[in-house]
Amino acid sequence: MELTLTGFLFGMALLAVPLLVVVRLQIGLTGQFLRALSRMLASSLLAGGCLWLAERYSHWALNLLLVLLMAAFYAGITPRLARVSQRNYLIPAAVGMGVSLLLTLAYLWVFVVGVHVKFLLGPVIPLAGLLLGTMTAAVSSALRTYYAGILHHGQLYEYLLGNGATHREAVWYFVRRAVQSAFLPYIKTMSTLFISVCPLVVWSMMLSGVSALSAVGWQLLLVVASLFATLVALLAALWTARHYAFDAYEALVVLAGNTPQPVDNKEKE
C-alpha cells in the first residue's frame, strides 16, 4: 500500500491540533514540542535515507556500513540525552551500543536465520534501528544515574573503601543503581508491547508475506533480542565509563573537580 504525497500532507496536518492546544493553553511546552518534532523528523529522514540506499543498491557491505553509521549517530546523541559530558561519555556510549549491536546481530544471523545472506540484504537495517532505539534510552538513563551517583555520593564510595570494600565492590553499588534505573522501565513496558507497538509490526510482516504464526514468533524474538541487547549495552557502557571517573589510584576524579580522563591500565601496573 503506497503512500501518496497528498495523503502524507493530509496526515501531517493532524499535527496542527496538538500544536494549537499547546499554544492556546499556554502550558509552556511549545519549545519542547517543536524540538521533539524536529528531532523526530531528522531521525525519520535519516532512517528513510538509509533504507532508500539499501533498497537502491542492495549490497551487504553497504548495509553493514549503514548500520555502523546509524550506531555512530545514536551513540552521538546518547550523552546529550543523558545530560553528561559529551567528550567523556561519548566513548562509553559508543562502546556499549556498538558491542551490543554487533553481538546481537551476529547471534541472530548465525543461530536464528542460519547464516543466510538475505538477512544482510533486507531486515538488518530496520532491526538495527529497533535495537539502537531501545538501547539509546536505556544507556542514556544509566549513564545519567551513574554519573550523578559518583558525583553526589562520592563520600559513600570513600566510606565503603574505608570499611574494607574493594574498588570493584564499591563501584558495584553505583553500577547496580544505574542498571536498575535504566532496566526497570523497559521491564514494565514489556507486558504492554503486544497491545501497543507489536500489532503494527506483526501486521506489517504479514503484509510482506510472512505467516501469522511466524510474524508473532518474530515479534517475540525481537522483544527478547531487545532485552538482551539493552542489558549488554548497559554493562559494557558502564564498564567503560568507570575508566573516566577514577584515576590510576582508584580515587574519584570528579570529587577534585577535574575532568575525567581514561585510565591507562599500564599505569596501575
What's the order of the H and E elements?
HHHHHHHHHHHH
Helix-residue proportion: over 70%
Characterize the biggest β-sheet: none
Structural class: mainly alpha
User: With helices defined by DSSP (H or I, 4 residues minimum), what is the helix count?
Assistant: 12
Cα distance, first to last residue? 63 Å
* Residue runs with pLDDT of under 50 for 5 or more positions: 255-269
Strand content: under 5%
> Which term fits the overall shape?
globular
Q: What Rg, in angstroms, do the CA atoms define?
A: 22 Å
Average of the residue pLDDT scores? 78
Overall strand count? 0
Plain-language structure description:
The chain is mainly α and 269 residues long. The radius of gyration is 22 Å and the shape is globular. Helix content is 77%, strand content 0%. The termini are far apart. The protein is built from 12 helices and no strands. Mean pLDDT is 78; it is low at 255-269. Helix 4 runs parallel beside helix 7 (124-152) and helix 7 (124-152) packs parallel to helix 11.
